[in-house]
Design brief:
By secondary structure, this protein is of the alpha/beta class. It has 10 helices and 14 strands. Helices cover 34% and strands 26% of the residues. The strands form 2 sheets. It has an 8-stranded mixed beta sheet. It has a 6-stranded parallel beta sheet with strand order 3-2-1-4-5-6, sandwiched between helices.
């Protein structure tokens, strides 16, 4: 029987209640032991809904619970770093939703806290855990499609609600922070390099003031990544990885469904329609379950995290460079705090 890690949850955010927590509860290494809300009745209702033993009426009370070993932080973006630091200072390991912070500089403040407290802090890029991405990276590394030279991706949804946190600028809303970060993260994952320079074009909503249509070109030592993300387009997502000998297409790269198989295809280009592509199908699995188990297992076994904090800071640096480029109209280099 596994020695499960006891988790506490900061807030009753939808991402946690609907996706992450039920998935973690199905894991072999995770025990969701407590949840906190600034409204005790809301915390109690959430605990009852998911069968969580303890509910707290403040985040501070949860962090003071000596039984809690790890914290899941799904708070709005502007609260990611402050509460991750408070959790670390309380001796809790932290799995924090993406993006890790509001700025590269802010995210970098997590490093000395992590090193001083000795806890683990990881950005919750759950896609890194899914077998379809692990297989895609394996195929690239084994040379199945030759040398990778280009990556193209798109991720979009349609949400005009001004009260939604994804549309509130002060909370870190906008497409780049919410979903563009995935397109950047996965291109860095596949190339296994950092971009040398980037260029971006961004359109903002005149009322919301958040970016609603953002496109970028990331120039890597080995090739290019082009991407578009939007919060006001038809819902869609796709990633294509182009090599000198073939192409990999990831059908549902980010919101991989937990209730049906995922597929990727490998195509050698012999038929321009792609009808001859080899299709790999993956068993039904929940990437949030895997993410929680890997983090918990890392705590128990002292192993390295799949998404190191230093890499998350570099991902933030790319996001910032895209924004700077959109304003300057020029190529911009990454600025990573020393």
């Amino acid at each position: 029987m596994k020695n499960k890690v006891k988790w506490g949850v900061l807030s009753t955010a939808d991402i946690g209640m609907k996706k992450v927590l039920p998935a973690m509860q199905r894991g072999e290494w995770c025990e969701i032991s407590a949840i906190a809300s600034r409204d005790l009745s809301r915390g109690q209702a959430a605990a009852a809904q998911l069968g969580i033993p303890k509910a707290y009426g403040s985040y501070e009370e949860l962090l003071a619970d000596p039984e809690i070993e790890a914290i899941y932080n799904p708070l709005p973006n502007h609260l990611h770093v402050p509460w991750s630091i408070k959790a670390a200072e309380a001796g809790k390991h932290v799995l924090c939703e993406k993006p890790i912070g509001m700025t590269t500089q802010e995210a970098a403040t997590l490093l000395p806290v992590r090193d001083r407290t000795g806890v683990k802090i990881e950005e919750a890029f759950m896609v890194r855990s899914h077998p379809q991405w692990r297989k895609a990276v394996e195929l690239v590394q084994n040379g199945r499609i030759g040398k990778v030279r280009a990556i193209a991706g798109c991720f979009s949804y349609n949400n005009h609600d001004p009260k939604n946190i994804r549309n509130i600028l002060e909370y870190g809303g906008g497409g780049m922070m919410d979903i563009g970060c995935y397109l950047i993260f996965t291109s860095r994952l596949v190339f296994n390099e950092e971009p040398t320079r980037v260029v971006g074009v961004i359109e903002e909503d005149p009322d919301l003031r958040t970016d609603i249509l953002s496109s970028g070109v990331l120039h890597y030592p080995s090739g290019h990544c082009i991407f578009t993300c939007s919060t006001q387009l038809v819902p869609y997502q796709k990633v294509q990885i182009f090599g000198t000998k073939g192409r990999i297409e990831i059908e549902i790269p980010f919101n991989a469904p937990p209730n049906k198989p995922c597929r990727i295809s490998i195509d050698d280009g012999a038929d321009p329609s792609g009808r001859n592509a080899e299709v790999l199908e993956f068993e039904v699995i929940d990437q949030y379950t895997i993410q929680g188990d890997l983090f918990s297992q890392s705590i128990r076994e002292g192993t390295e995290l799949a998404v190191p904090l230093e890499g998350s800071i570099k991902n933030m640096a790319v996001i910032e460079a895209v924004f700077r480029s959109a304003k300057s109209g020029q190529w911009e280099k990454l600025v990573v705090p020393a």
